[in-house]
Amino acid sequence: MSGAEQGRAALASGAVIETSGSTGVPKRVVLSAAALRASAEATAARIGVGQWVLALPTDYVAGLQVLVRSALAGTEPVTLAGSFTAQAFVAATAVASERNRRLLTSLVPAQVATLLDDPDGARALAAFDAVLVGGQALPDAVRVRAAELGARIVRTYGSSETSGGCVYDGVPLDGVRVRAVDGELQLAGPMLADGYLGDDVLTARTFVEDHAGTRWYRTGDLGEIESGVVRVTGRADNVIISGGVNVSLDRVERVVRGIPGLQQSVVVPIAHARWGEASAIVAPVTAPVVDELLAVARIAVAEQIGAPARPSVLIPVAEIPVLASGKPDRAALTALARAATT
């Protein structure tokens, strides 16, 4: 079945997407055909239509949406040959360019970083009219590098429960409503999922109705809305208590990723004999630079967040394990860090 045919099938019958499970047990999200269509149409209204290059797995909502958007546009997406590499992306971009349409693609931050590190990959990235980047926050250092090389990055926010990204560069797509309730971001709109397959309790807890009958998705993300622009500050459940002080590990990770040499790092919780809980940096670095980079990170975090938020240890790894979605496998990294510090 071709990519466009798969997209048309999803538009006819909907889909069930298994979430990445980066921090817990995966869930199966039920997406109706109407929700998928609403999301794809809202994306087209924001960035236009064109020739899509498929660089993500199609069992991941961002990959599925490339198929759905292509089906709605009456085009066939260009698919990478084999797994993602800079060379495979360059080759797919060359094929897509021959079709004389606007070039569009959807990537995760790790893929963007891979392309920026390859001269041919960086040139290919800059050829696209829009590069949707989601799945996790795009590190500022990567965003700046991409902009300097001419890449047209569109940062997306959303999830499987919203049929993919529904807020682009902080601005909700047409038909999307956003509110903050006790600091938690909640989303409403025609692209919301029906719920979780076989889990009515979780569905009822996650999708709630207000007094007007509007159905809202509780994202579990902390954030704020100012002048219509959404800013995500972290996960509500990614907080530790260190020495009696609440510390957002998402904030710590953003600071750490701004340090040269630590752009691909992940910050996870560990137990601490004195403070109860602390944080560990896991990064693809070599042993000789660990002490120096940890010292720099502790100073930066103390200055920008506060001394209680300083990470306790830096654990070097050959590479960061990732899930099929391209997100870091935080459950595996947390287990690794805890094993290394006990």
What is the strand and helix layout of this fold?
Elements: H1 3-13, E1 15-18, E2 28-31, H2 33-47, E3 51-54, H3 61-73, E4 78-79, H4 86-97, E5 103-107, H5 109-116, H6 119-126, E6 130-133, H7 140-148, E7 153-159, E8 164-168, E9 171-172, E10 177-181, E11 184-188, E12 195-196, H8 200-206, E13 207-209, E14 215-226, E15 229-235, E16 239-242, E17 245-248, H9 249-257, E18 266-272, E19 276-283, H10 290-304, E20 313-316, H11 330-340
Parallel strand pairs: 3-4, 3-5, 5-6, 6-7, 19-20
Antiparallel strand pairs: 1-2, 2-12, 7-8, 8-9, 10-11, 11-14, 13-14, 14-15, 16-17, 18-19
Helix pairs in contact: 1-2, 1-3, 2-3, 4-6, 5-6
Protein name: O-succinylbenzoic acid--CoA ligase
Pfam families: AMP-binding (PF00501)
InterPro entries: AMP-bd_C_sf (IPR045851), AMP-dep_synth/lig_dom (IPR000873), ANL_N_sf (IPR042099), ATP-dep_AMP-bd_enzyme (IPR050237)
